[in-house]
User: What shape does this take?
Amino acid sequence: MSPGSLDNGQVATSLSAVEASQPERLVSAAAEVGARTAQLDSLITAQRASVDKLREGWSGTAANAALARGERNLATQEALRDKLRTLQGVLATGGGQLGATRTALLDMVSQLKGQGWRISDNGVATPPPNLPEVFRSYPQAYTRMLQRLLKTYDGIDGETARKFPTFDEDGAAKPDVSFAVGDDPRKEEIEDLVRRSLAGDKDAARQVDDILDGIEPNQLQPHSDPNNPGVTMPPVPLTPDQAEVVSQMQSQMSGKSLDELVALKNDLGEHGDIIGDSMQVMSDPDVKFPLVVDEPFKNQIPPGIDTDAMTGGKGMLPQSVKDALDAPAVSRAIAGPDQTIPVTTYPSGDDLQKVSELIRAGDAQFQQGSELDRTMMDRAVDVLHGAEKENRDYFKSSNPQGDSIVQDIFNSAGRDQIVSHDMITEPNSTFLDDIARHEWTDNGAAIRTLTDWVHDGATSTDPDVALRAGETANALSTYLGDSGDDLLNLQHPGGWGLDEDTTVGQMNPDLVQSWGDALDPYQKAMLGDGQMPGFEPVPGTADSDFTQMRNIFAVMDSDPTAAKAWNEAAYEHILDYQRNPDYNNLANAGAMLGVVDSAAVQEMESRGANNLDNQKAVYDMKKAALGAALGWPASQIPAVGGTIAELTIKGMLGSEPTLESVTSNAPTTNVADAMNQTNFYIAEGLVRDDPNLGEMSQYVNPEDGSLKRPEDIPASQRRDYFLDMQEYVENRGFANAMDTFYKQYQEAGGINVPKGFVLRG
Assistant: This one.
């Protein structure tokens, strides 16, 4: 064989052709096709909804003809969409493989040329002159490697072209790909596997479970293209085995009662999750799978219906589950002629709780916007409204029967992040207000399920999760900012038919704690410090109006546990701002410190008199939160005594309330303490590297150049110490920043002024 040809005597494509090629354009084209496919899919969804609505309200010969035309049109569009998805995959895969092969080939050519070799256009390697005898075999080896890379490139190029789907002139054609799993024996194997699972065979259920567990979230919903920001990719299709398992589970569970499904779930033990997991997938509108059609009915399928790729939805669920979802959740009826108040019952409550049990046994990763979860949450709202009406009818403060139904649904279907996000962010929705004002028998613990993912989602590397978390947090922040003061002035039934005043934190402490946990990562973003996907600064803060932000903080203060955690995070931010001082950081420090102070007073006054006990309770809460932020154990929070610890405590909290300060209506927080503390942190970072200390030189430790702490200064000289420090900081360019700290603190209401006290000066 000559060194200029391959084993078959043929030379592959040329080096110059490979060098001139641009395979990255195939990858870019794949992204564009993906975007177009997503748009077409949205159009199909809207048209499908129109056809379904038409089917519900029109019947007869003309209706049947119109519906048939509509189904044919949809089938044509779905076929085109499926071809576009195939094209997208071919372009992305082919472009990636061609690009990698081209890079490897051209890198090798470049290295050889750099060593004096000559490379012909057909890949023949000619060595440099005077090549030592020991290397005489290298030219043939290099030629073989280069020409095989050329052949590989040629093969990938041809295979990519071969896989391109064909389109009719009008863009319509039968899809080239479906969910067919290959030969019938494999279908029959999965059919038998599901049959044995639903008969209680745990080993068969394990195998079904393994197949289902292979389904990834990106197969259940559209997702952002990680390589093309702003481009949404359609869901990745189920694998043939996954699709066939879902198909068989849908078919073989369709006639089972709820009691049978629950009993089967229990019998299968750790693999009982296949019931709930498969129901999630079969009811997911972003999933397609084949529909099992018995032989006698195959010729009755309407034209345009592709049974190999049916869209998931509520209609695919077992009939007993659909019956539970569709039944009235609440009944209010006058029981007798002598009654004027309706009797409230929950006729589908038991069945809804059975469905909740099936969902809760499943894996939350399958809950990606399914119609099962969405409809269950709708029923939860129905029951909540019914329970609230019943409470008002009979002046009840709690409703164990209604609450237990709603709580079971929240603890199961509420795990669906997409559904929870949609309910919380829906424009003009009263959902957040409804759950806040209802007095829950579990103190609002079940509601935590709806938002317990937001805290971690805020910093998720998945852009879709981060955006969803930010939008959810933004809706919650907006609601609390608008309604926070109202939530501190609620009423609930007390004794003797009278209402009693309460706060949302007193009534539903676990709910408030869940709110704090969800919003904690967004505290700085509330001020406009940093951008987080989906989250906007609290309205007004850009103009130094902190009313809404104060409402948010005051709601968190209404439960002691939530208050400590929330204010601990706030103090950490304030200290961080002070230790990294610039104009914006000090403005944010003043604003947040002012909001912390004034919100605590706002919440305290909502609970009653501005007395010593209430003020001390607020002070102790803030002191515990500050101690936690500084890493002080609760038993070792420093007492006053002229130390930096005292300076920090007084700067953040003010002096401890006394009977005299309460009776004289004196403010307990002095902005001078806060400014002294801030000046200390700024000066501490400046003096070590400053050759011109001036008056500050007397306050610097000669051993290490560090700033002396307040406890190192005699009490009689401490006033001069702080004044000299203030002048030093201002002369180092921080005068405007400190003025802004002071002004923002005041704008935020940070001077802890009880009602009726007028600040002078």
In short: The chain has 29 helices and ten strands. The longest helix spans residues 61-114. The chain has a mean pLDDT of 84.
